[in-house]
What we know:
The chain contains two helices and 19 strands.
Amino acid sequence: MARMGGKKHLKALASPKFWPVLRKEYKWTVKPSPGPHAIDRSIPLLILVRDVLKYAKTAREARRLIVEGHFKIDGRVRRNYKYPVGLMDVVEIVDTGEAYRMVPVPVKIMDLVPIGKEEAGYKVCRIENKTTVKGGHIQLNLHDGRNVLIRVEDPKNPVEAAEYKTLGSVKITIPEQKILEYIPLKEDVIAIISGGRNVGRVGRVRNIRYGIRRYRSIVELEDKHGNRFQTSLTYVFPIGIEEPVITLPEGAW
């Protein structure tokens, strides 16, 4: 893939392959604003509205709809047509009540899956890091740039935050960010693959072989048909213990 950072504009040929844009008809495309997701792991809101949801035929029409506040991302109205929509984000159409979640899918890398109104009220985020902040409280740094604070009574013994481990997932309400459930990364947990050759595949974790670095650690999973496959720990995203807590594409689980 061509270089995408450092400039205000983005050529269509250099855009991520999963963007549904006409690369040979138009020289330029929309470059996402800096935000919760990287350029190569997100889709600008304008392209989502025009080319994926088909609510507009032209960029001008899409920008007008976005500025008027017809679309919510994770429970908040977004008026920036360059806003990056990425992994596990919830997209809502205010006027129709439709809701979708951005999930990994085979070949396409990422796509929207229709979800119900109740499910649109929460999101699953992976814990990328844990930090200690002022007062001895623990802050969870999530995959989409969010930070969730776990308040502890005794900074020397933060038992309230002991269960939350990196690479596990938390189910949180949006936009309030209240933790509803914690899904650890361990054997027998259901996970979806967010990248690599097996992107979009869903399976139960059967074995984790930790290496020196995260990307060198190998995870073995088993899909619903009993087929086993391996991927890097970097791409494993826990989504449920007994059953997935999110709606998946048909046939995925």
